[in-house]
TrEMBL record, chains A, B:
Pfam families: HTH_1, LysR_substrate. It comes from Streptomyces lunalinharesii. The keyword Transcription applies. This is HTH lysR-type domain-containing protein. InterPro entries: LysR_HTH_N, LysR_subst-bd, WH-like_DNA-bd_sf, WH_DNA-bd_sf. Belongs to the LysR transcriptional regulatory family. The lineage of its organism: Bacteria, Bacillati, Actinomycetota, Actinomycetes, Kitasatosporales.
Length: 303, 303
DNA sequence: ATTGCGGATAAGCGATCCTGATCGGCGTGC
DNA sequence: GCACGCCGATCAGGATCGCTTATCCGCAAT
């Protein structure tokens, strides 16, 4: 199971085409065909159905492993590359949409005030892509958001040695269309909404399986899927009655056309966590330190 | 980064020798030397220090990824192999030492009573090896034990799609030598023992980093290391005053020469979880069903 | 100084992995 | 209905890779 073979395997199923995958990877169609044949010979079972191109059951199994494997391979390479390459004048931050709130933006501002001529790039992507970017070295650090019980960490797939650090906690809110019966409430119980219509916007809002997990309940069935990282588009869908979504209250309150109602039960918060590799680059470490001391100060003030 | 290269890389560092690794892998020493050279050329930095053979900093980074990568590669292969191979007359169960208690043994007995001529093999290994065995298809299912807050799941590294299921919960106990000042107590607070002498027996007893995690405290410094899966040996070490260890109360109470004192705070339990691949073999599914219905019955009885 | 151990290097050969060319099956448009 | 186009399979050939054998080199102990 050569990584190259795995790579063309996922490319083939991504493109639903051998020749398309070949073009994308810079191979000939012949090579791709041979790659798939080699994989199938190695594993002893047909992996992709041809014409139309689709995964067989065995191929579906492999698809659950291959992307994670390839990502971890990149992670290993990036981990080592970080050891020699040092460019302390550039900081790339990957960020899920709802994580880029006042806390993160403020910390970045402080960092730029402290550091002269720091070239900062903020990249807003989906939740999974944040992790992938950090792990593969395309970003120095990342901010991921999600819902969890207070002081519980967010669950992260382990893609190698990395550290997480709570960066911000806000109350969680549900987005309602303005004319919704519950829109005027002061608070809602999430467990009352399991049968409501929800928007599956796992890149932008809190993913539905996460809601299921924190409520320990089934339900939260998606009615429409929203891809991309655009909070306003999500709000527009909710406003038009396509379904509900969960976001941090400060973010939700600022969105037009919708009502944001805090979640009162179960007791949980929206938290954003900073995630960085075990051996971060210099400016990344600086931002981490900054957020840690901030947090310490906040804790001290609370007492 | 060919998996073969990674495999010889970890073998070289395991054996602390090129020629030793070559013998173990069935290569010549020359091939191993070339493998390492190829890896180093690919990653652009020296990975192992020669004479004596030891990992460089970059090599240490790679060592944090390579075993996980190789394991997941095996997992993918095993996942697919499970699809065709079907031998419903044999069941291999991997088990960490403290997990093999009355509940698990009882469930296995029930299964054998129900199923005619089922060839059962129980393999007791360290915690990590249980996961590895299940994931790589060397066992149909596994039982892992650990300490956690009540109804919290044990943290598991994600090595692919698998399912966990709580199999048993027991109170946690600390092993003391009989003449220890605390040996006569009815209960102890774990957080009072952070500075005590502990045995690092991560395969057999609850690992110390797990204790640190559930106590949210540093400490639990190891004074002696115990490898292997032998509970009596661990008890002997404790009896001789080498240090403390944490085990489920029923198991601990049966050990000779020591005193087992329940843990009263923080509120936590020793739990053993069943873990099986997303597509289990037939007898594995049968055991899972058996434990699920048992559990349902127990829950119903409790009400 | 010599010898032995352990890793590096060189040469050679078979296997592997690409490309380009061709074949074959299937759906489509005229 | 037929020819064509699309797409994947297969084949042949050349470059490269990866292993083995043989030899070299540096270090340490005697």
């Amino acid at each position: 199971m050569d990584p190259h073979l795995l790579r063309t395997f996922v490319a083939v199923l991504d493109h639903r085409s051998f020749s398309g995958a070949a073009a994308a990877l810079g191979y000939t169609q012949s090579a791709v065909s041979q790659h798939i044949a080699a994989l199938e010979a190695d594993l002893g079972s047909r992996l992709v159905e041809r014409r139309p191109v689709a995964p067989t059951p065995a191929g579906a199994r492999l698809l659950e492993h291959a992307p994670a494997l390839l990502l971890r391979l990149d992670a290993a390479r990036a981990d080592i590359a970080r050891l020699h390459q040092t460019r302390p004048t550039r900081l790339t931050v990957a960020c899920s949409p709802a994580a880029l709130g006042a806390t993160v933006a403020g910390a970045l501002a402080e960092l730029r005030a402290v550091t002269h001529s720091l070239d900062v790039e903020v990249r807003v992507t989906g939740r999974d892509a944040v992790l992938a970017d950090v792990v593969a070295g395309r970003a120095d650090l990342g901010f991921v958001d999600g819902a969890a019980a207070p002081s519980d960490p967010l669950p992260m797939p382990d893609l190698g040695p990395m550290t997480t650090l709570a960066a911000a906690e806000e109350t969680l809110a549900v987005l309602f269309p303005r004319d919704h019966p519950l829109a005027e409430r002061r608070a809602v119980r999430l467990s009352d909404l399991t049968q409501a219509q929800w928007i599956d916007a796992s890149d932008t809002a809190v993913p539905l399986d996460r809601l299921r997990a924190v409520c320990r309940a089934e339900g939260f069935r998606p009615r429409i899927r929203h891809r991309g990282t655009d909070l306003h588009g999500l709000a527009a869908l909710t406003a038009a009655g396509h379904g509900l979504a969960a976001l941090p209250l400060p973010v939700a309150a600022a969105l037009p056309g919708i009502a944001a109602v805090p979640v009162s039960a179960p007791r949980l918060v929206h938290r954003t966590e900073l995630v960085h590799p075990a051996n971060p680059t210099a400016p990344a470490r600086q931002l981490v330190d900054l957020l840690t001391t901030r947090r310490l100060a906040a804790d001290a003030g609370r007492r």
